[in-house]
UniProtKB/TrEMBL annotation:
<protein>
    <submittedName>
        <fullName>Prolyl 4-hydroxylase</fullName>
        <ecNumber>1.14.11.2</ecNumber>
    </submittedName>
</protein>
<dbReference type="GO" id="GO:0004656">
    <property type="term" value="F:procollagen-proline 4-dioxygenase activity"/>
</dbReference>
<dbReference type="InterPro" id="IPR006620">
    <property type="entry name" value="Pro_4_hyd_alph"/>
</dbReference>
<feature type="domain" description="Fe2OG dioxygenase">
    <location>
        <begin position="170"/>
        <end position="277"/>
    </location>
</feature>
<dbReference type="Pfam" id="PF13640">
    <property type="entry name" value="2OG-FeII_Oxy_3"/>
</dbReference>
<dbReference type="InterPro" id="IPR045054">
    <property type="entry name" value="P4HA-like"/>
</dbReference>
<keyword id="KW-0560">Oxidoreductase</keyword>
<dbReference type="InterPro" id="IPR005123">
    <property type="entry name" value="Oxoglu/Fe-dep_dioxygenase_dom"/>
</dbReference>
<keyword id="KW-0223">Dioxygenase</keyword>
<dbReference type="GO" id="GO:0031418">
    <property type="term" value="F:L-ascorbic acid binding"/>
</dbReference>
<keyword id="KW-0408">Iron</keyword>
<keyword id="KW-0479">Metal-binding</keyword>
<dbReference type="GO" id="GO:0005506">
    <property type="term" value="F:iron ion binding"/>
</dbReference>
<keyword id="KW-0847">Vitamin C</keyword>
<dbReference type="InterPro" id="IPR044862">
    <property type="entry name" value="Pro_4_hyd_alph_FE2OG_OXY"/>
</dbReference>
Length: 281
């Protein structure tokens, strides 16, 4: 399964052709003829045409569109670049998927090794200030990798993009969190609160978050599940597995309230990939 990325070059080519007087239908046919999938060609055109009116720099995926694997054939296993991933659970509302073996043991260990020396107490956007500050709801340590910063980061990001049919450039840098015994992440939403004063500035860089992939980099001895309180679901933190959920609007009706339950024994490492509506830079 190949993913076709709508790059800035593709968008500017489309924009130039439109200026020349070609119709969107003609461009779509030309893109189809040179191997582009119909839906990707459609999305590229939409991005350019809506971008000309709404946001000249940042491409925004059609509203309501979210990352999603292709399970149309009832697949229980998805192979990406020779790496097999199992589909262990699929829930429609909220949209939650659990993947087995998204990362190999060695890949988990390498991400932990690269993150370990760069950890600091996690910050979330607090309600009181238009910035980030240490929040007691989240008692883990964390760091961000820059997108594509190392071979392992690039490999994982490419795999995620292909699995979820969402361009690499729409993703934030990978975040790694480390929870010690007793540490937790209390239930929260990952989208940016539309009522929050800091949100408009955040949305300028790629729009809303529309999906979250939490990858487990080790297996805590006890505790540390990812929980979805609205639907009483707990996903076990098992090394190499991952939980994915998407939200097509920044609203509690998505039922994507979730948290990291307290680690009871041992420690917990996760890598989180947040996916935006458009190009994150
Ligand atoms: O640690 C977990 O299980 C959840 C992490 C999480 O919610 C996040 O990184 O946004
Ligand atoms: Fe979260």
């Amino acid at each position: 399964m190949a993913v076709q990325m709508i790059t800035a070059e593709v968008r500017s080519w489309i924009a130039a052709q439109l200026q020349e007087g070609y119709t969107p239908e003609q461009l779509k046919a030309a893109m189809r003829a040179s191997g582009w999938a119909a839906d990707v060609a459609e999305q590229a055109l939409l991005e350019v045409t809506s971008g000309q009116v709404l946001a000249p720099v940042v491409a925004i995926a059609p509203s309501g569109s979210v990352p999603e694997p292709d399970l149309s054939g009832g697949q229980t296993r998805i192979e990406i670049d020779g790496h097999g991933i199992e589909v262990l659970l699929s829930m429609a509302q909220p949209r939650v998927l659990v993947f087995g073996g998204l990362l190999s043991e060695a890949e988990c260990d390498e991400l932990v090794a690269q993150a370990r020396s760069r950890l600091s107490r996690s910050e979330t956007v607090a309600d009181s200030a238009a910035g980030s500050e240490v929040n007691t709801a989240r008692t883990s340590d964390g760091m961000f990798f820059a997108r594509g910063e190392s071979e392992i980061v690039r490999r994982v990001e490419t795999r995620i993009a292909k699995l979820l049919n969402w361009p690499v450039i729409y993703g934030e840098g990978l975040q790694v969190l480390h929870y010690r015994p007793g540490a937790e992440y209390q239930p929260h939403y990952d989208y940016f609160d539309p009522e929050h004063s800091a949100t408009p500035a955040i949305l300028e860089r790629g729009g809303q978050r529309v999906g979250t992939l939490v990858m487990y980099l080790n297996t805590p001895q006890a505790g540390g599940a990812t929980t979805f309180p609205d639907v009483h679901l707990a996903v076990s933190a098992l090394k190499g597995n991952a939980v994915f959920f998407s939200y097509d609007s920044p609203h509690p009706r998505t039922q994507t309230l979730h948290g990291g339950a307290p680690v009871r024994e041992g420690e917990k490492w996760v890598a989180t990939k947040w996916l935006r509506q458009g190009e994150f830079n």
